[in-house]
Amino acid sequence: MNEAVLSARSLAKVYLSGTQQLQVLRDVTLDVAAGESVSIRGESGSGKSTLLNLLSGLDAPDSGTILWAGAPPAPNRRAEFLGMVFQSFYLIPELDAEANVLMAARILRSPGAAQRARAKELLKRVGLAERATHLPAQLSGGERQRVAVARALVNSPKLLLADEPTGNLDEHTGDAVIELLLALCRETGTALVLVTHNVAHARKTNRSLFLHDGVLR
Ligand code: ADP
Ligand code: MG
Q1: Measuring from atom 11 of ligand 1, which residue has the nearest CA?
Q2: Number of the ligand closest to the Cα of 50
Q3: Which end of the chain is more exposed for a tag (fewer CB within 10 A), N or C?
Q4: Ligand 1 contact via 44 beta carbon (within 6 Å)
Q5: 0.85 surpassed by pTM
Q6: Is 90 in the pocket of ligand 1 (CB under 6 A)?
Q7: 45 CA → ligand 1 middle, Å
Q8: What secondary structure letter does DSSP report for 90?
Q9: For the chain, how big is the Rg over CA atoms in Å?
Q10: Which residues of 124-160 are buried (b: 16+ CB within 10 A; e: fewer)?
């Protein structure tokens, strides 16, 4: 039996700016099974990042419920439960590739030999074994995003949330990052929610959904 890793029911989210009310999400329901990959497309401003913020527990819905492997999101479960990859990479500029990967492990415990070995292994798996001591400024966009992918997986999460991870990459580099992301999730049994504008990338996931008028179909 594949228990749902992620279960979201009837999520609604309204933003208030001044006197304006903007209902971004009306009724979003989503179940993601263990190891499953799901893509979400939608126009710019349709609420994709808002939805990922709710799914990651970084923001709260106005109504509706979210379960992470059957239990409500809690800040002290986040680092173990999920990893995130963003369009702008968000690496720490002062830290080299390996230290960036280890930053995510540091949330759980002070990294020891096992965590260092895991970071090295992941950097090798994303093709950056020779770049472990490079600073982000010494890496290309595609290489930075591969460091971010390694960082997202360092704690062996059950779920990876990726918000337009190829949005700042050229087509060829973006394709390679998506292949790597999908392969690594398959290998490790990590479920993936991939927000993308790229139809070809969306088609590579197990299930393709579309966010429109605050509803996910
Ligand atoms: P997407 O990721 O699909 O491009 P977003 O989730 O970033 O869309 O934004 C959805 C809508 O909500 C946009 O119209 C955006 O301007 C608005 N929005 C996003 N965040 C906020 C916020 N913190 N306050 C007010 N409006 C916001
Ligand atoms: Mg967005």
Answers
A1: 45
A2: 1
A3: N
A4: yes
A5: yes
A6: no
A7: 6
A8: -
A9: 17
A10: ebbebeebbebbbeebebbbbbbbbbbbbbbbebbbb
Residues within 5 Å of ion ligand 2, judged at the Cβ atom = 48-49
Residue 121 corresponds to which amino acid?
A: E
Does residue 37's CB lie within 6 angstroms of at least one atom of ligand 1? no
Nearest ligand to the CA of 210 is 1
DSSP tag of 206 = S
Place of tokens 């997202």: 152
pLDDT 10s digit of each residue in the chain, 217 long?
Answer: 457 999 999 999 999 999 999 999 999 999 999 999 999 999 999 999 999 999 999 999 999 999 999 999 999 999 999 999 999 999 999 999 999 999 999 999 999 999 999 999 999 999 999 999 999 999 999 999 999 999 999 999 999 999 999 999 999 999 999 999 999 999 999 999 999 999 999 999 999 999 999 999 9
CB 196 less than 6 A from any atom of ligand 1: no
124 by DSSP, 3-state: which?
helix
Ligand 1 atom nearest 53 alpha carbon? 6
Contact 115, 105 (CB under 8 A): yes
